[in-house]
């Protein structure tokens, strides 16, 4: 059993089900990447794992504990962190305050972590006093990831963290993710920059219409011609 | 077609665009790249009339369009998409598309009240067109869904779809590719090429996916710190040291260690 | 001498009253602005919340008075204030539970909250009149004046007097303290920041482990405290009458908006802008000019820019001018 | 048989606190008559309240409509404010042929309103009060006054009447400025009034509304120390609230030498304050309607409207509050009465109070009557 | 489904009115109905602005008041003595005012930009203002002293009052155009308070410019578009009619008059409803919804947001103005002091939201329901108190207190009803249909 697993999840936003018997999981120190066409239900699956959506069948387990019934805040307290795909910053708060909010539940000194984030994304250090709402799209994305890193989580969930960031920052980001994973943290990530992502992934999921279509190691999926053609852009 | 001359835009004490000068040739697909915060989106916003420039001019086909409002520019054939999708979230996908064309008779109150037949005929036409676009973008199954309920990528597609509803002269695309599935992005790339070749649209697109840029764009302009850093073909740009240092980078460092 | 007289005249009829009135508006506007800033709607029930809180304070004051407890020169109401705040907070929290919570869960549009608050306003209106009646209620005691015009004249030998009331002094000081405290709270403390975060992006606040129920609760408690303080100070200075508190709503909103909704500093600035413009534009400068003019000459006309019947209009014209230059108020407020 | 009377006053709105003492005034008369058992051969009378809101004509019209057509009242005591009274009169009472006796609508315009003889008031027109007030001020030797009035038909009408009378008598009004009731702050008004100057300040307002606010602020800033108080300002509440500072201020209110007012105060006891403005007039308005019914021996407005003036004026036995039973007896026996009531009612012209005024002065923080005019 | 809801709710409304008719009186029921009709029109006006375009206009009161002003200016007879005394002066000062404004505009256009230009414009403005006042004040004083108790104003044109309805619309629309030009750049609550302020200013002017409106002295005795009850009662044909119907002449005369009003109001309501509905369901409506949804995007899609906002602001205000003129006509008098934001602004908003914003049917229903309870809340409150206290001892203090407070229960009842409706259908009784085309 994996450290984090959303098992056989079925559910949606109140209308028709979006997810059908969908399973995603990540083990400690492991990077799991979800790919799939737009509207496949990737973000929905992430939200389901984070408890922001009702699933009527299936369950979510963290470290052997069933957390299906917990609220999102409670999951944060259990060491999960999530970067949503859209509206993922506090627009009228400064960059630094955004980061502080990421560490809201932490009681220790957070300055060190803040400095680490600034090191990772130097532009944020320059703009620490600026409101996040005034940042460029890519800068915002960096704030969002930075905010999640502030939690010092056990599980880090990222919904398209590289959307809109420049190649150099994307590389930095993936580098950092690998580092983070190496410290034993589970990473669950949705990506459309799929090839780069699968390249560093231990495990990959291809989701189509709310169902698991392929599940394999990152490399295996990359080498699967069907997957390449239909989902990775050839 | 578009001539941007020494354009600048200041926010508070900070110059987001700082003396940018560039040309977009008629019939080209010009790529615009640059690090996050280089001022690309701001440049678009100034050209498209969302922000008034602090200095400099913008010309469209020899006409000074500096500071004109977005809706005026729309009628001059200048369209743009938004980096952060700006769909009409309480309207259906189809309505989002049908509202785009300008000069609809039904948008004039008098005709809406007293010329129902005219309006009805026009609506049929619009609907057909909208359905074609929907089909093309592979979002038929959500055609009657509220746009606010679309997935992130679908919203991006809708954003692009709106520019396809009218005959534009020049279209500014702000990261249409971000968050779009790569397979679909290829299809979109084909569409852009087709619009460019068959209908003569000029494109200027911001993108961070170098493959996508490489496939479509010539020339490519790289911005940094509010000004143009380099311009050239994709290969020239890829080889430019400044661009590599500021933007492209040299790949993953940790990958090997990990394996 | 004449110059001094002129200055004292202005101080007595313009500066002091405008400062006091401005502070009263500011305290009210703070509550409005806080709710707007955090819970993102214009709370039309605020005037009546002020009335409710003040009513609670009055009842306690009476009780204390009847037991002979007092604060010497200061009004007993100050002693009753914490109790009034507690009751008002309890009531407001109950309202939230019964009314607003539902819309929060529904993620209703701000206008729905606004209209719901109109409903709450109606209900509060009835409750307050039901408990304490529609009449004026006297509850001020202690010393009334810090400086009194007549004594002032005697001391200084000037023709003009200067009055500063205890209630005015308390009001101005409280307003400044409260703003400073609120500003500090929102921008420097963890809870304060989490409240701003909640208002910025509710979902993301959840994802950061911020407890929305706590944010909402704290917001309402502070708002109730502000309302009670504002209402009590106003009542001490003028008088308590439920209908007047409803009428206060308009200038209070004007103040909050001029300053920029959601910004505590804006509320203070807005309060003074409204108060000073009301008083200065409609003031008759006849006497003032009379003192300054040489000899015994004094102007025939009143030298009044506009009659006081237009004083409300004046403050709204100023408001408009401010908004035209700065569409979200002096201090860059929010807008939903 | 049970006869219903409408008590049509502003229970909510800006005059709600005055009405709190007016309605019981009217209801005292109603209970008195009803309990006497002598009304129209033993009929009872009940009061039906309806809200004029004082300001909202539409709501007032609807309420009057309800009283007449649904509650089927036989007469209406009210309305209170001149504006809504006019609306209810022209829109509802007139078409339905209903009698209205207002205790407090004092606008001069109501003297000439078209009413088919259906409208009366136990309050005098402000045209008269203006003259009386001017005389009082002149007699005390003041020649220059500042004037502020509550910005409604009552305040404006009274202020105009006063200013005309005062200036005709050679006085000077340095400034005449309105104030809105129920507003948060009156510093601006007081500043302007003080600057304009004047020996005393005439406050044509309401004692628990802006009028009080103006006086309080004037005293606090020492802008004025003597005030002239017309009817809307006369009441115990004012000296009670303000205290010794008000000593020396003076004014007038409808009223007369009669013991009637005192009687009513006795009858009211602690239940309400019968010295509050228009409380006495309310009692009288209700009494008049019932007495006129008795005289006509009919509850049909068309019949008893003719009798209102008869019972109100001489000749006949004088009737004070508390003596309604006696009056009913006399009328039943075919005799004549001259209703004096709590406010010394004397109806003149088109059926409005002649205007007897009680001159008052504040002494030792209390109202005291110093004469009658 | 929605069709059924429409029928259901309007059916309930009809039943309520019938109950009032049966148990209270038909007169009352009809006068409630008339106000319901007017309220429905006002609610439609607000719905056009808010529901279609998302304009938070809280200045309804001002436009209703302007409609009322139109009723006076159109229908009251002119006062020749007042015209003689100061009519010329008022016109002259208006000319002076216009000249000042033109002067400022010319100076703005002709002179080069800079400090000097500003100074000259300010100078022209200030001098013009004082010249204007110099002519204006004596003229209005003269007008106001012409038989102040009865006239003291210029009077109107003496035309049939029904003309005032469209004129009221035009007047309100014209003023809305000016206001819109100034304020429509503002967003949400900022626009709200700006319009609220302007409406207060409009009412303040009507309250204080006696030469035009008689101010707080009110204008009474406006003429009517329908017969007078007294005349009917005397008319032979009417008496015969009553006889055949077996009705009391007096009662039936006022019922008849109310029916006439109801007919007129209904015609106006239906016309405005038809136009609104047609517009909403057309591409124009779609455009407005897009603008409401996202202005930036709509602008980028070629829609002239400012112009459309202005258009819809003017249209909505016109509708409110028409309703305002109708209301004043029904009242038969103009009482400027009665224009209170609670009654004329918030109550109308409550109607729109309770009914369901964005939906014309909803707005109309809201107008009906809310007005009905606004009027009936009082008897309901009293009845409630009576029932509550019926168990208590006759002389219990609490009972007396409760009964005394009954009148205040009106607002409370209203509040409770409002909260209940919003609770059980948060988007209004008849919510806007989204996702329809
Ligand atoms: N409203 C604003 N106020 C202040 N600064 C702003 C504002 N908008 C943008 N900026 C700043 O201007 C710079 C340029 O932003 P812009 O959005 O144009 O970047 P970009 O090149 O599009 O970047 P990206 O690739 O991340 O989208 C950024 O540093 C940003 O912080
Ligand atoms: N709030 C919502 N309410 C109703 N339906 C929704 C909502 N959000 C998403 N959906 C629907 O659920 C489906 C899956 O959406 P989801 O956001 O999970 O897609 P995704 O796989 O993340 O796509 P993308 O790559 O474009 O982000 C879509 O068809 C979308 O229309
Ligand atoms: C209750 C009263 C004081 C009313 C006032 N006399 C009026 O005519 O409006
Ligand atoms: Mg997604
Ligand atoms: Mg950008």
TrEMBL record, chain A:
| Sequence ranges assigned to domain ABC transporter in this UniProt record | 4-234
Q: Which UniProt keywords apply?
A: Amino-acid transport, ATP-binding, Nucleotide-binding, Transport
Q: Which Gene3D superfamilies match?
A: P-loop containing nucleotide triphosphate hydrolases
Question: Is Acetylation included in the keywords of this UniProt record?
Answer: no
Pfam short name (any one): ABC_tran
Q: Which family does it belong to?
A: Belongs to the ABC transporter superfamily.
Instruction: Tell me what this protein is called.
Output: ABC transporter ATP-binding protein
Q: Which organism is it from?
A: Paramylibacter ulvae
UniProtKB/TrEMBL annotation, chain B:
* Database matches in CDD domains: ABC_Mj1267_LivG_branched
Q: Which UniProt keywords apply?
A: ATP-binding, Nucleotide-binding, Transport
Q: Name one Pfam family in it.
A: ABC_tran
Q: Which GO terms describe its molecular function?
A: ATP binding
Q: PROSITE patterns, from UniProt?
A: ABC_TRANSPORTER_1 (PS00211), ABC_TRANSPORTER_2 (PS50893)
Check the record and name the PANTHER family matching this protein.
CONSERVED COMPONENT OF ABC TRANSPORTER FOR NATURAL AMINO ACIDS (PTHR45772:SF9), CONSERVED COMPONENT OF ABC TRANSPORTER FOR NATURAL AMINO ACIDS-RELATED (PTHR45772)
Among its keywords, does the record have ATP-binding?
Answer: yes
Keyword rRNA-binding attached: no
What InterPro entries would the database entry show? AAA+_ATPase, ABC_AA/LPS_Transport, ABC_transporter-like_ATP-bd, ABC_transporter-like_CS, BCA_ABC_TP_C, P-loop_NTPase
Residues annotated as domain ABC transporter: 2-250
Protein's name according to its UniProt entry:
ABC transporter ATP-binding protein
Q: Which domain of life is it from?
A: Bacteria
Q: Which organism is it from?
A: Paramylibacter ulvae
From TrEMBL, chain C:
Source domain of life is Bacteria
Q: What's the protein's topology in the membrane?
A: Multi-pass membrane protein
Q: Where in the cell is it found?
A: Cell membrane
* Similarity-based family: Belongs to the binding-protein-dependent transport system permease family. LivHM subfamily.
Tell me which InterPro entries the record gives. ABC_transp_permease, BCAA_transport_permease
CDD domains linked to this entry = TM_PBP1_LivH_like
Q: Which UniProt keywords apply?
A: Amino-acid transport, Cell inner membrane, Cell membrane, Membrane, Transmembrane, Transmembrane helix, Transport
What the entry lists under Pfam families is as follows: BPD_transp_2
The membrane spanning regions, by residue number, are 6-39, 51-71, 77-99, 111-132, 166-186, 215-236, 305-325
Record-given protein name: Branched-chain amino acid ABC transporter permease
Automatic annotation (TrEMBL), chain E:
Q: Does the keyword NAD apply?
A: no
- Give the residue range of the signal peptide: none
Membrane-traversing stretches: 7-24, 30-48, 55-76, 82-109, 116-137, 157-178, 190-206, 255-276, 310-330, 342-358
InterPro entries in UniProt:
ABC_transp_permease, LivM-like
Keyword field = Cell membrane, Membrane, Transmembrane, Transmembrane helix
Q: Where in the cell is it found?
A: Cell membrane
Q: How does it sit in the membrane?
A: Multi-pass membrane protein
- This chain's protein is named Branched-chain amino acid ABC transporter permease
């Amino acid at each position: 059993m994996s450290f984090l697993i959303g098992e056989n999840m079925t559910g949606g936003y109140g209308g028709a089900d979006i997810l059908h018997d969908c399973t995603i999981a990540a083990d400690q120190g492991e990077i799991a990447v979800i790919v799939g066409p737009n509207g496949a239900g990737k973000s929905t699956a992430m939200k389901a794992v984070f408890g922001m959506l009702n699933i009527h069948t299936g369950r979510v387990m963290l470290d052997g504990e069933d957390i299906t019934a917990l609220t999102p805040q409670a999951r944060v307290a259990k060491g999960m962190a999530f970067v949503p795909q859209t509206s993922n910053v506090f627009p009228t708060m400064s960059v630094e305050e955004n980061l502080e909010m990421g560490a809201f539940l932490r009681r220790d000194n957070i300055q060190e972590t803040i400095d680490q984030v600034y090191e990772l994304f130097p532009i944020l250090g320059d703009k620490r006093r600026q409101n996040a709402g005034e940042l460029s799209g890519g800068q915002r994305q960096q704030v969002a990831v930075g905010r999640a890193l502030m939690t010092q989580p056990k599980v880090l969930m990222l919904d398209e963290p590289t959307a809109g960031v420049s190649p150099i920052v994307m590389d930095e980001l993936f580098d950092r993710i690998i580092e983070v994973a190496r410290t034993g943290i589970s990473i669950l990530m949705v990506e459309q920059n799929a090839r780069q992502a699968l390249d560093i992934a231990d495990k990959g999921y291809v989701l189509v219409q709310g169902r698991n279509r392929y599940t394999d190691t990152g490399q295996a999926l990359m080498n699967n011609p069907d997957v390449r053609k239909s989902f990775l852009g050839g | 077609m578009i001539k941007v001359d020494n354009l600048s835009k200041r926010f508070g004490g900070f110059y987001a665009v700082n003396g940018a000068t560039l040309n977009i040739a008629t019939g080209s697909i010009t790529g615009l790249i640059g690090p996050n915060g280089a001022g690309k989106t701001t440049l678009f916003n100034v050209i498209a009339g969302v922000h008034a420039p602090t200095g400099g001019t913008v010309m469209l086909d020899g006409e000074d369009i500096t500071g004109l409002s977005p809706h005026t520019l729309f009628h001059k054939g200048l369209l743009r998409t938004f980096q952060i999708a700006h769909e009409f979230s309480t309207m259906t996908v189809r309505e989002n598309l049908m509202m785009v064309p300008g000069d609809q008779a039904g948008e004039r109150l008098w005709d809406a009240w007293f010329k129902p037949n005219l309006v009805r005929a026009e609506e049929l036409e619009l609907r057909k067109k909208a359905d074609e676009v929907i089909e093309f973008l592979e979002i038929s199954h959500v055609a009657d869904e509220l746009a606010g309920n679309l997935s992130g990528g679908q919203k991006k597609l809708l954003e692009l779809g709106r520019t396809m509803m009218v005959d534009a002269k020049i279209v500014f695309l702000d990261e249409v590719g971000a968050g779009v599935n790569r397979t679909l992005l290829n299809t979109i790339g084909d569409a852009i090429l087709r619009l460019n070749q068959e209908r003569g649209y000029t494109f200027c697109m911001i993108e961070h996916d170098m493959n996508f840029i490489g496939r479509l764009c010539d020339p490519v302009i790289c911005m940094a710190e509010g000004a143009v850093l380099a311009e050239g073909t994709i290969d020239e740009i890829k080889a430019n040291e400044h661009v590599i240092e500021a933007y492209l980078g040299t790949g993953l460092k940790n990958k090997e260690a990990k394996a | 001498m004449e110059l001094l007289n002129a200055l004292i005249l202005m101080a007595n009829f313009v500066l002091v009253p405008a400062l006091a009135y401005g502070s009263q508006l500011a305290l009210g506007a703070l509550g409005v602005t806080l709710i707007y800033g955090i819970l993102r709607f214009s709370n039309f029930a605020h005037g009546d919340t002020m009335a409710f809180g003040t009513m609670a304070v009055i009842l306690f004051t009476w009780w204390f008075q009847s037991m002979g407890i007092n604060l010497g020169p200061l009004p007993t109401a100050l002693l009753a204030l914490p109790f009034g705040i507690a009751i008002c907070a309890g009531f407001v929290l109950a309202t939230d539970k019964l009314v607003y919570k539902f819309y929060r869960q529904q993620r209703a549009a701000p206008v729905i909250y606004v209209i719901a608050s109109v409903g709450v306003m109606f209900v509060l209106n009835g409750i307050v009149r039901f408990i304490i009646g529609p009449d004026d209620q006297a509850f001020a005691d202690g010393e009334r004046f810090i400086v009194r015009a007549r004594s002032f004249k005697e001391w200084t030998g000037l023709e003009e007097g200067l009055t500063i009331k205890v209630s005015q002094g308390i009001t101005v000081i409280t307003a400044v303290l409260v703003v400073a405290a609120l500003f500090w709270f929102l921008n420097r403390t963890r809870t304060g920041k989490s409240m701003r975060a909640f208002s910025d992006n509710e979902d993301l606040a959840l994802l950061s482990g911020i407890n929305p129920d706590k944010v909402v609760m704290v917001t309402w408690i502070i708002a109730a405290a502000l309302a009670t303080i504002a209402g009590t100070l106003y009542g001490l200075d003028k008088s308590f009458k439920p209908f007047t508190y409803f009428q206060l709503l308009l200038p209070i909103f004007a103040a909050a908006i001029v300053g920029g909704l959601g910004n505590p500093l804006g509320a203070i600035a807005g309060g003074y802008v409204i108060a000073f413009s009301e008083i200065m534009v409609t003031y008759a400068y006849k006497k003032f000019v009379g003192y300054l003019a040489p000899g015994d000459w004094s102007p025939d006309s009143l030298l009044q820019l506009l009659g006081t019947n237009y004083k409300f209009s004046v403050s709204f014209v100023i408001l408009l001018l401010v908004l035209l230059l700065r569409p979200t108020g002096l201090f860059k407020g929010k807008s939903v | 048989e049970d006869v219903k009377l409408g008590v049509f006053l502003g229970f909510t709105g800006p005059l709600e606190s005055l009405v709190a003492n007016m309605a019981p005034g009217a209801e005292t008369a109603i209970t008195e008559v009803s309990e006497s058992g002598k009304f129209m051969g033993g009929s009872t009378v009940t009061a039906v309240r309806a809200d004029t809101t004082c300001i909202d004509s539409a709501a007032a019209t609807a309420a009057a409509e309800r009283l007449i057509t649904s509650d089927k009242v036989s007469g209406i005591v009210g309305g209170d404010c001149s504006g809504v009274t006019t609306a209810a009169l022209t829109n509802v009472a007139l078409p339905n042929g209903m009698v209205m006796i207002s205790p407090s609508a004092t606008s001069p315009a109501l003297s000439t309103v078209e009413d088919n003889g259906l409208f009366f008031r136990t309050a005098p027109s402000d045209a008269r009060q203006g003259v009386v007030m001017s005389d009082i001020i002149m007699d005390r030797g003041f020649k220059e006054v500042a004037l502020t009035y509550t910005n409604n038909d009552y305040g404006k009408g009274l202020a105009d009447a006063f200013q005309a009378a005062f200036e005709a008598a050679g006085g000077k009004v340095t400034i005449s400025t309105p104030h809105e009731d129920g507003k948060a702050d009156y510093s601006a008004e007081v500043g302007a009034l003080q600057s304009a100057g004047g020996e005393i300040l005439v406050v044509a307002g309401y004692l628990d509304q802006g009028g009080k606010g103006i006086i309080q602020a004037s005293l606090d800033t020492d802008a004025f120390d003597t005030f002239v108080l017309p009817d809307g300002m006369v009441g115990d509440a004012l000296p009670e609230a303000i205290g010794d500072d008000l000593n020396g201020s003076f004014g007038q209110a409808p009223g007369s030498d009669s013991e009637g007012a005192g009687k009513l105060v006795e009858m009211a006891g602690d239940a309400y304050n019968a010295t509050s403005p228009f409380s006495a007039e309310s009692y009288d308005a209700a009494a008049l309607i019932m007495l006129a019914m008795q005289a006509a021996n009919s509850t049909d407005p068309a019949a008893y409207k003719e009798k209102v003036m008869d019972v109100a004026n001489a000749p006949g036995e004088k009737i004070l509050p508390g003596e309604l039973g006696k009056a009913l007896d006399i009328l039943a026996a075919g005799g004549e009465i001259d209703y004096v009531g709590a406010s010394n009612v004397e109806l003149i012209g088109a059926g409005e109070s002649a205007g007897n005024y009680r001159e008052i002065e504040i002494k030792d923080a209390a109202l005291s009557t110093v004469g009658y005019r | 489904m929605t069709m059924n809801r429409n029928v259901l709710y309007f059916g309930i409304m009809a039943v309520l009115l019938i109950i009032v008719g049966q148990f209270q009186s038909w007169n009352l029921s009809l006068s409630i109905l008339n106000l319901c009709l007017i309220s429905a029109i006002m609610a439609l006006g607000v719905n056009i602005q808010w529901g279609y375009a998302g304009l938070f206009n809280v200045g309804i009161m001002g436009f209703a008041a302007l409609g009322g002003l139109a009723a006076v200016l159109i229908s009251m007879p002119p006062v020749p003595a007042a015209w003689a005394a100061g009519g010329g002066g008022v016109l002259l000062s208006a000319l002076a005012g216009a000249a000042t404004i033109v002067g400022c505009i010319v100076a703005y256009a002709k002179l080069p930009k800079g400090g000097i230009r500003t100074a000259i414009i300010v100078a022209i403005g200030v001098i013009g203002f004082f010249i204007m006042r110099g002519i204006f004040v004596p003229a209005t004083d003269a007008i106001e002293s012409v038989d102040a108790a009865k006239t003291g104003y210029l009077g109107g044109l003496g035309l049939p009052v029904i003309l005032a309805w469209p004129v009221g619309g035009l007047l309100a629309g014209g003023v809305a155009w000016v206001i819109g030009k100034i304020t429509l750049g503002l967003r949400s609550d900022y626009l709200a308070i700006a319009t609220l302020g302007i409406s207060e200013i409009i009412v303040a002017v009507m309250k204080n410019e006696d030469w035009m409106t008689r101010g707080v002295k009110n204008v009474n005795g406006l003429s009517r578009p329908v017969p007078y009850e007294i005349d009917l009662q005397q008319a032979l044909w009417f008496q015969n009619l009553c006889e055949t119907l077996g009705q009391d002449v007096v009662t039936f005369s006022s019922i008849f008059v109310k029916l006439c009003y109801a007919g007129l109001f209904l015609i106006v309501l239906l016309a405005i409803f038809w136009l609104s509905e047609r517009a909403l369901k057309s591409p124009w409506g779609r455009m407005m919804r897009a603008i409401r949804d996202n202005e930036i995007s709509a602008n980028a899609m070629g829609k002239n947001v400012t112009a459309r906002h202005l258009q819809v602001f003017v249209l909505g205000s016109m509708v409110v103005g028409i309703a305002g003129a109708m209301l004043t006509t029904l009242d038969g008098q103009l009482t400027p002091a009665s224009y209170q934001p609670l009654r004329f602004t918030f109550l109308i908003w409550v109607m729109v939201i309770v009914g369901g914003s964005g939906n014309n049917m909803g707005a109309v229903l809201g107008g009906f329901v809310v007005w009905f309870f606004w009027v009936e809340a009082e008897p309901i409150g009293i009845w409630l108190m009576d029932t509550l206290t019926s168990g208590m001892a006759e002389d219990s203090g609490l009972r007396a207190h409760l009964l005394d407070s009954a009148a205040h229960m009106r607002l409370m009842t209203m509040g409770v009803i409002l909260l209940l409706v919003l609770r059980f259908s948060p988007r209004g009784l008849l919510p806007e249909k989204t996702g329809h085309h």
